[in-house]
Amino acid sequence: MVHLRTLGSIDIRGTRGESLDPVLAQPKRLALLVYLVLARPRGFHRRDVLLGMFWPESDATRAREALNQALRFLRRGLGTDALRSRGANDVAVEPSCCWCDAIAFEERIAAGEDAEALALYGGDLLGGFFLSDAPLFERWLDSERARLREMSCAASGRLTARCESTADVTGALHWSSRALDLSPYDEAALRRRLGLLDRSGNRVGAVREYEAFATRMRDDLDVEPSPETRAVIEQIRARPSPNGPPPSERGTPLVRTPSDPAPAPSSRRRSVRVARIALAVMFLLLAGGAASIVARQGNDLEARRIVVMPLENRTGDPALEMVGQIAADWIVQGLSRTEVVDVVPAVHVSQLLREFKAGADSSNALRRSQMLADVLNAATVVVGSYHQRDENLEFQAEVIDVRRDRILRGIDGIRGPRSDPMTAIDELRRRTVGAVAFHFDARLEPVIPDAVRPPSYEAYQAFAAGMDQRGQRGPREALEYFHKAFALDSSFTTAIFLAAIQHLNLGEQAKADSLTRTLARSRERLPALERQLLEWIEAEVRGDLPAALEAARSLVRFSDVYRGQLAHNALRANRPREAIEANRDFNIESQPTRFKLIYSRRITDAYHRLGSHRQELAEATRSRIRHPELAEPVVWEMRALIGMGRTRQARERMTEALSLRPSPDWPGGEILVRASDELRAHGHANAGREILLMALAWYRALPDSQATLQRHLRYRAAALLRADSLDAAEAAFRALATDFPDDPYYIASVGVARARRGDRQSAAQIAGTMLNRNPPYDFGHHVYERARIAAQLGGVTEALELLREAVANGFDFAFVGGARGHTAPASPDGGPHLDPAFDELRALPWFRELARGQEGAAP
User: Fold this and answer.
1) CA gap 535, 634 in Å, rounded
2) What's the farthest any 2 CA atoms get from each other in the chain?
3) What pLDDT was estimated at residue 445?
């Protein structure tokens, strides 16, 4: 049975638990499957409805053919029994062949099993999914999302009420929190939760929950909570003690009863109040475990060892002196739970401070912190202070590198009531711990400059998890964590920027565009760095390569972290010399393995485009020494040697690359095709044809399980076209175009094959009809493919004009080809430098400039 998960994360797995990635990689066909499974009434759906739903702009013939292709594709991916037909007009998914979490969720709700239903509800239906050319489907999806979300909210409300009726406060708090997560602007749910928190004795939590809700309302909707909600929180704030359990269950009462002595003077009352807060904090510290120094290895041990100083009391009121120690203890407690730094226990700091006060030169707070850091072998300290602001206390803190006398991070503007400062202290802890962890986490160093505003610790944890997923599994898996980080801290816009970049990396420009439009609404409130980053993403989404390059140049002025991005944008804008210059002083040896490989790929590409093959070979050799187990650097050496005319040595490198452990990035067939193309492009046509025959033999020897993969089918078809096996090449590309009708490369290659066979009319018709489109976020891809056919038909002038148009529309002429996104299939033609369709254009000056870069000949 196929398992289809649609609530929150999207996943589909076969009967043996294997991921059905080909279905996930086809958004419209995935959407069609989800609609067939979930649309009501359940069962059969009329084909005419499906045509209007998914192909509204196509004529009837093309739409019906597209639907038939999609259904054939789903049958192949899910199994022949998964879909069934009723006559010629109706189609359905066989229920016994497909389990879907959304249907199971509704069944649990109907059976009264609310908790089990909510365990299935991982988030919105097809969260983050979007089809730009199917408005009726989007409308249906929006209504289904709202309906299922309302059902989940109602279930959370019923579970909360059920727990309240049985005096299960813990359960009620859990389900009330879930209700707010599901409906973050529901004031009735908030008021219910505030009452629960108040009755449980957690007045601080109630105030914090309200403040977070109010901030969310202001930032997202530009409105304030209703008078009813404000009245609830004011009632909680005004009460002299929490509306919690009776005193006999709480221990010593914190409020004066009628039998208590008369109240002390106001300053004494404040002192008693602060002392009681201190006792509460001490209890929490003991309950959570004492902070301790965690032994770590590495040269940065001193930098990662942190001393937290008691905050300075600048209120002028001695009764508030203890607040500074409470705040420091609270921050130490937070830091001790991270795995990023070593925090010195508060008891050690207190003991040493008492000793320093007895000595000389101890009046200056910064001097004391430096002395403490020296004694404790630490290079980082957290210092801060608090001031009186009307009836509030305002806190600020700084994370300082005392060895370099440099502020690493600053946290300010945190306010809370003077009568109850714990709300502000808790927020200060969250911000400080987040800032420290964010600064010292090595996972973030390659991509996050110091100028980025640090998040709360909870948001940092989600963000760091996203960075882990990004490095280990890829951009798709990272996305949900970046969105979660932003949900936990709506001021942490960096998380949304990273989410947009992951969508760009996946070739999902529509989703990146949607996120940037959201960010653009508050453009003026963004920090300067993020405004510039927004300009860069907007240019990328438009396909404006010159503007993206200019934005990348501006980003480098903020931080050298963006030098790699500048090099990448320079290459894509056809400026290889600038790409080399961008990384001239880049310390490659300090980077993780993955970034070393990316760096070398960019630099060798740039040198190759300039014709600087000696420098290209030197960089490729350095990369091979760094990564002796990988085939890719050996392929770069082969490419450089071919450019230098050293074909015998190039062939030795090719043989070496084929002998290494098989690589998913460079299968043997692709190494052979690339070697053949480079030999032909550099004037060694006969040697190239010999290698091409080896490539075809490699693909013929593949086992059936591998031979049917799209990547291998794509390159095999390209090799057949190069070898002038025109009938076989056309048949292979026609089959691919049937399965992947949105890929213009397959359609154009059919046209190229027909043009070579002399069928000029048919080739011209393909270019003029099937490729004469400009879909959203295409970036000149269709125009480029028309240029391939025009060049093959001998239309040199037309081909050059089309190439210029493709450049203006944002087509990427980097050697990896024109497809956008890491998950897009690699182009066998590798751009105009290698594309055999352009062989007749190679002597033309403009084409040479296009292939070699805009900055002229090699140095």
Assistant:
1) 37
2) 107
3) 52
